[in-house]
Amino acid sequence: MDIFFLGTGAGMPAKLRNVTSIALKLLEERGAVWLFDAGEATQHQILHTTIKPRRIEKIFITHLHGDHIYGLPGLLASRSFQGGESEVTVYGPKGIKEFLQVSLSISQTYLKYPLKIIEIEEGLVFEDEQFSVEVRLLDHGIPSFGYRIAEKDRPGTLLVDKLIAAGVRPGPVFKKIKNGEAVTLEDGRVLNAGEFVGPPQKGRVVTILGDTRYCENAILLAKEADLLIHEATFSKGEEKLAFDYFHSTTYQAAEVAKQAGCKQLCLTHISSRYDKAAWLKLVVEAREIFSNTEIAEDFKEITIPYK
Ligand SMILES: [Zn+2]
Ligand SMILES: [Zn+2]
User: Fold this and answer.
1) Cα 11 to middle of ligand 1, angstroms
2) Which ligand has the nearest atom to the CA of 39?
3) Which of 10, 30, 59, 115 could cross-link 35 (Cys pair, CB 3.0–4.6 Å)?
């Protein structure tokens, strides 16, 4: 489970930061990549990485501002030429369906794979045996959503050595123990599954927010997340500006991480008014409130380890 930043700038592409797109690499978990937003030239950014477009299984759009969606039709079209045959599901606010249908039909783009488009509302938008994805509305002038991606807990590993020491041979008994069943052996001994299985592995949580002002729903989505990715379009002291443009400052992003009890915070959606020298300053000021803070850069990767 790794986060890979494809674009980390606000509003317009800049030389050092392309517009927003974030990949959640779930290669070990499900052989798939999930994308969050696809600003213009997201597919160009992907060319510089090891990400295979055919691996993209789901694309979650936070909101319909151009810097978050202009790259989507092109990316979907190219995926057809890059061996993509498996279904892609796009999740996004109301309007995403029309945007894609119009873009693809007017340009006479025919995809060689099934495309599913789901217009989301608050609540659970996806769940399977591995992951759940919950969304809530943020505060950004137009509907902007935040996503909480939660991995399900995984059962503990079988303590093979301990079973063998207890005189059990690999086979059906192992399987029953792994399934959590108590087993009565031929000699009458009863083995309790709990004693032969390690502790369950806690699932990891990543929260990826769309553009937003400081708001309560951001804190709820980020509750005890292993990693929170929060926009920080402005530096501290620019709260008035941030409020007027429906964005957040570094301080406000850090405050959300602190209130939510997150493990780690990564700032993104950085305005081009801040040059490279200023980026460090942005991190340092966020760390005054939340110490485990990093700042995103295009092509930066963050691995989310097990707890
Ligand atoms: Zn934006
Ligand atoms: Zn926006």
Assistant:
1) 5
2) 1
3) 59
